[in-house]
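Structure, all two chains, one model.
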Amino acid sequence: MAISANAILTQAMLGLNNGAFYAMLSLGLAVIFGLLNIVNFAHGAFYMLGAFVALIGLTQLGPWLGMPDLQINFWWALLIAPLVVGLLGILIERTLLRRLYGLDHLYGLLLTFGVALVLQGFFTNFYNTAGTPYPGKPEILDGVVNLGFMYFPKYRLFALVVSLLVCFATWYLIERTKLGAILRAGTEKPKLVEAFGVNVPLLITLTYGFGVALAAFAGVLAAPIYAVSPLMGADLIIVVFAVVVIGGMGSIMGAIVTGLALGMIEGVTKVVYPPAASTVVFLIMALVLLVRPAGLFGKE
Amino acid sequence: MNRWLWIVLIALGLAAPYVLYPVFVMKLLCFALFACAFNLLLGYTGLLSFGHAAFFGGAAYVCGHALKVWGLPTELGILLGAAVGGLLGLVFGSLAIRRQGIYFAMITLALAQIVYFVALKSPFTGGEDGLQGIPRGKLFGVIDLEDSLNMYYFVLAIFLAGFWLIDRIVDSPFGQVLKAIRENEPRALSLGYDVSRFKLAAFVMSATLSGLAGATKAVVFQFASLTDVHWATSGEVILMTLLGGLGTILGPMVGAFTVVSLHSKLSAIGSWVTVIIGITFIVCVLLFRRGFVGELQHLLRGQFGAEPGKPQAGGKPVAVAQPGSGGKH
């Protein structure tokens, strides 16, 4: 069976597109874990929530408020959804997560698992789990671009570029700015940073809000590509966990590179051996654990 | 466990089918065994697996297939299911113990997802429909298990045997080492215990018994479905254990009864059940980390002044990580 190079390249590009979402989510997980020591199981749910804020804002908010003309379009949703979800995240951090600091990590995981179930169950009551298409893709992004080896949907290219920009902006923020330096210091020695007059609890709250907002932003970007479904986050978060195990949570750039690479590998697997496409990331994780237990970018 | 508790437990088990619907009690027993097996790992060894549905559901599928297609006798089918659970446990365990803490949970979750996809795609599992029409058969070729009372006492016997084994393991010197690892892994290591081997052994035992529970469930309901291998089931067994009391011998049983009853009472309200399960998780983690049995033991011992979230012997110890101490695992 001959597989054309073209088909491989096409799937690699589509996979890279998925990989960008893995990268954005694992980045948020890594940032949150660094400072809060919590593996945020609700990350997938916040991604799903971001997509739903976009969907509801476009199709339902107006009629609910009795203003049928009110529509939050895609561009506004990119701004509003992360804000709304970020605020919800801040609320959750302040009221729930805050009580768990100082306990074993596993309680944070279990609590955020509970939060994920609540959000997912809530939306399952009102929306089809098979997914609702998001009708608000901007007209300017309709159509395809000729990349030479394939015609790539304009919107997917846009989503890819934007997510890469967001990833690298986050990397820059954390690795190259003063704020990032404080954040990294807070990860290492919170007490000492506090002694220097930095409000660490506030820093923690904002970090959680930021990580969660990043997930919601990814959700809005994903909405025009995939159907908006209450389960979209749950399916994704497990893959992202595997990405995090492979890359290790110690390095921001590691999270980005691993996410992109695994997305591509997954895409290529769809051509080479389709039945393994949904499991290849997990198999790679098992392999990495055998060869390099600390993860590719781990510091152990 | 104390002799009187055993007598009460056996008496309750014998009388239950005359008071409650036998199939419901059998479901309770299967999940109670599952939760007790899970507790062996989380409660007594301190390892959080997020992939136990793979052992439970994997065993259910294999047992179902063995009974339906290969025509194996019921008791052998169930044993085969348990063996498959143990084998999967050996594979998962030897990979997962290479990383610690929170990674352990993520690895087991990801590995379990492979089993889920295999169940979804393989020809022998029936995909979305699940594996249906598993025959209950005759026990030892004599006792007809289609009769629901016969089936009930068979399930009760399996449950009691599994539970007795767990009770023995916990009280054995081996169990004491597991608890030492849970309390302070570096110290256990420095005392010369091969911590990895103990962890792996605990993992395999827990997986085997989870497989036993899953295979039995498949025979009781005569089907195995994707729900059995789904991560939501892994989540529920965690909730059962947490709700009843981590590291208490009776806790998981109480937790399983609570969660299974909750499901059957609330089956009419659709996915609001998921919301309620989620809220229970949150409340449990925030307000009573010791669980029902753990809190009760705590009250009975009259240790009111103890630090919250830091249960005494028999509870899961906590307070090791400070926020901001970094992701250095």
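The first helix of chain A runs from residue 5 to 36.
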